[in-house]
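Title: [Solved] C2H2-type domain-containing protein 3D structure

Original question kept below for reference.
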Amino acid sequence: MLSPEGIKQEPFDNLFSCYKATLEKYHCKHCGFFTDLSLLFSQHTLTHHLKQAPSYSTQTYFCKTCYFKTHSLLHWYQHTQSGCNYEDSTWLQCENCSYGTIYRSRLKWHSMSKHTPPEQKRWRECPHCPFRTLRRSHLKNHIVAKHLPEDSIKWWRCPECPYQAKLNANLKKHFIYCHAQPEMVKWFQCEDCPYKSKYKHDLYRHKVRQHSNPDEVQWFECDKCSYRTKATWDLKAHLNTVHLRQNNKVKKFECEHCSYKTTRRCQLAVHVTNRHKAVEDIEWFECDQCEFKTKTKYGLRSHFKIRHVEPEVEEWFTCSQCPFKAKFKAYLKRHQNLMHTDEKDMKWFECDHCDHRTKHKQHLKKHLKTIHNVIT
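Solution (posted by the thread starter after getting help):
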């Protein structure tokens, strides 16, 4: 049963104001299940009560003067009381670009985030680290995710598996990705190719990488080397993996069973599954089109992408400096590191036990195994 509670913990309470009303919950008419999320409710009904007549109904509330609609009576009431004055002829246009909207608040946010100099923006700063953001909600989520003590967190728990998250948004993403049936998912479809995604930000990344004109795109450049990219998240990953690694400032996650360590928590989880989990405890991921099976969901996705996806439907990662393209971002990064990176800016894979270094991660693994008897 999913019944997450709001997080209230000193000294963070005084940073934010909280609306005391609570959202309506979705109650199952066949059992005692209830949840705050309509997607979880629909999935529960399909999974556990599909053979019964679906006697439930979800009421949708509409605004009479604009396109706003919601399943929550509380949200509808808040919207109508906020002074909705939308008119069909109203279209608000940005003075600096082609962006337009019917909502004044969205135009204000767009102007602030896209066209206002950094020194004039109203930043909300974290009291515990250098993090800052323009949104109050982002600051609150950051504090919960990064600074709230583990024993003080009110976890959002998945009703289908042991997964738990610090943020409600992360639980939603998990459920959509891992448990939602395809017909229950709202797919985001690319207008220029067959690509589609469960996540809106993945579609945005796809458009930036695959369909943006290099001459018109905004490039984000590294201030420490010649690297540049179309996306801020790629630049951040570059800084973390290349320059922070060189200065030994990267946080590493260590295995409890051996000397293995990595800069990514997800890679540590894969390592534990592959190397240390008992066979009877492994959850195998099987391909529905052939006899292939693997220990990790990523391995199944990679297999499906290589063996069962047609080239014309595939989302290719293309090099911005030559015709090279790859099915996996990691292959593109390796290509760029080997072919288009200066020697001084090269991403080297360094041994923690000696001075050996190499351009290839697999060569480092072989070195560790043969010279230091370390298996990664």
